[in-house]
Specification:
Oligomer: single chain
CATH topology of the largest domain: Nucleoside Triphosphate Pyrophosphohydrolase
Structural class: alpha+beta
Strand content: 25-35%
Order of helices and strands: EEEEEEEHEEEHEH
Number of strands: 11
Number of domains: 2
């Protein structure tokens, strides 16, 4: 079989383990020399259609007080690492047909902040407010998410003295960062001070901001 011209066909699928949230699966595929091999990967048990979760890029602006725009991030205790991970607010999808509403709910529950309007730039076709289905780590999982961009009015009374509504098993600390040339330095400084580790999507966003300024 020429792997460059023909897609390999899965021969068999076997579930090895299933828990409350995840399951381990073995997929059998042909090798180029005519033999077969088994590839192990992880799936979520909570999938809705083809979507597992949502991540939220929350941008806070201050139209009345003209403070510097901020990005809403959180340090989330992740048991797999036994560390707090600095990342975007996120959660499992509940209504795959209304991801924006799911994002608003998740952001409010995890951070206390309520999105108040759609970004002006998102009224064009440049960047979709709700992304297409994205694959997080396809080398070991078929887990998917959509990335939702929302704006929070920091001057609105609803976003003052906010309170999280966390589940008993959640440990989340909210952080606001100025969106400035020092964003990455500020993130690194806090991570070192608090012993946080950093999610790859967050780093990718910062790199995109830097490259957009330097190369475009």
């Amino acid at each position: 079989m020429d792997s460059n011209s023909e897609s390999p066909t899965r021969i068999s699928t076997k579930e090895a383990f299933s828990g409350n949230w995840l399951k381990m699966t073995f997929a059998e595929y042909p090798t180029r020399d005519g033999k077969t091999y088994f590839y192990e990967y992880v799936e979520r048990t909570t999938r809705k259609k083809d979507l597992d979760g949502i991540s939220i890029v929350g941008l806070m602006k201050f139209p009345q007080t003209n403070q510097s725009p901020k990005i809403i991030l959180e340090a989330n205790l992740r048991p797999a690492l036994d560390k707090y991970v600095l990342e975007f607010p996120s959660g499992l999808v509940e209504n795959v047909d209304d991801c924006l509403n799911d994002a608003i709910r998740e952001l409010k529950e995890e951070t206390g902040y309520t999105p108040t309007k759609i970004l002006e730039i998102l009224k064009t076709d440049d960047i979709p407010q709700v992304s297409p289905t994205l694959y997080i780590d396809p080398w070991k999982s078929n887990e998917t998410e959509t990335l939702v961009i929302v704006e929070v009015d920091g001057d609105d009374e609803i976003n003052k003295n906010v309170k999280q509504n966390l589940e008993d098993t959640e440990n989340i600390i909210v952080h606001l960062f100025d969106i400035s040339a020092n964003l990455w330095q500020d993130i690194i400084k806090l991570a070192k001070e608090k012993g946080y580790v950093i999610e790859s999507k967050l780093y990718a966003l910062v790199i995109g901001l830097v490259l957009g300024k330097k190369l475009l």
